[in-house]
Amino acid sequence: MRLDPAALRDAVHSVDTLFQTRAADSHAPSASYGLFTRDGLVHTGSTGEVASTAPTADTVYRIASCTKSFTATALLALRDAGSLSLDAPVTDFVPAFADVVLPTTDSPVPTVRMLLTMSAGLPTDDPWGDRQESITDAELDALLRRGLRFDSIPGTRFAYSNLGYALLGRVVSEASGRPYRDVVRETILGPLGLDSTGFEEPAEASDRVAVGHRRSGDEWLPLPFSGPGGFSSIGGLFSPVTDLSRWARWLASAFDDSPGATGDFDGILSRASRREAQQLSRSVPGPGPHASGYGFGLFVEHDPELGDIVSHSGGYPGFSAHMRWHPASGLGMVAFENATYAQVSVPVTTALHGLLHDLEAAPAPTVWPETLAARAEVEKALRGGDLPSDLVSENVDLDIPFAERRAAWRAAIESIGGLEGAANARDVEHDESTAPSHLVWHLPGRTGRLRVEIRLTPELPPRIQTLRVQAERLG
């Protein structure tokens, strides 16, 4: 689906207002944000100052745990090249983990897949993990040999683990034969043209590098940068809005089904593997109103009105980052603030979801041609015709005999005063579909309407396996 550019331009003022309000409330010394579509950045903005000037879309911030999506991409690329299996135990790559005593005698050794999906049994370790970035590989090995505690049996539940992604950095190094940071630079950042993104503070452009801060009373205190090390794979990258939005757009492009869209302009990772990373692989428990979980280095939530939303936050001492996009439309947003615990995810979520609702960007039902053809035949039958015998699966008559169905249809039609209009008169606004094989629609009557639902079989050609007709009276 494609968004209306004019409607989007008219709506972005709400994003600026949201961030200006946050600046007035002193959430952070500065913020930089950008809104993107499949065609690129369409709006950027900022608040506050960096080095005595207003930040721009090129101002560099730490992206913290948004780095995990780069780590996951590097792993999937190695998997696709045959260099590793996601179901291999971590001990194949990190021998020191063999000294870790597992929580039960029948616990499996955590696999690469478990680490990717935050289900290796390790406890949530924010903010401890954020302070470990600079440790060496030898120090990480020593940590493992001293032993670990587990929250759960590996492979059974979600818990956000920085240590798990530190281990994945080692997996990348061992499987590729190169240092983790070199793999990310040479196989992801370079080919994608993310020239302002890296693991070291870009000193040559210090006038456009945001310094992290923490609040102390009425003051903002600057914080030193940590250097790269054994935990860089959990959150070590620096990046500006221009680069991170390009990264998010590249990930989202895997779902672009417009004519001519391939998204494989870089050769880094196939569209299929990028879509795989953006699937809910491990559910995240919580009180949220809809299903959500973790894929590979990315969170995935399913909004019943908008469809899937993909995101990741980043929180480091002095920094907050968030990237979020709507795969069905390609609309997304990235934002940074340079303050500890600023939670820039809050305004991004509010802004993006508000825009999606305003632009009516919920995925439109996409149904098979056979589903539409079956609808037409069902409508004819409801008006007294016969359903073609080869269109209906055998279970339909076995579940409720057709004689009984037709009697119920007649009663339902009579209860709404008969059907109005021509045979194709429908209440299109209320059509619903949860899958290409499924369709719900309404036929108007004088005092109500008929709700009709069909679902087709997986055969070729598909046949009607579900056929429900229900009267809905007005008032």
UniProtKB/TrEMBL annotation:
Source organism, top-level taxon: Bacteria
Gene Ontology MF term list: hydrolase activity
Pfam family, one: Beta-lactamase
UniProt KW keywords: Hydrolase, Membrane
Domain Beta-lactamase-related: 15-346
Main subcellular location of this protein, as a coarse class: membrane
TM segment ranges: none
Compartment(s): Membrane
Protein name (Swiss-Prot/TrEMBL): Serine hydrolase domain-containing protein
Source organism: Frondihabitans peucedani
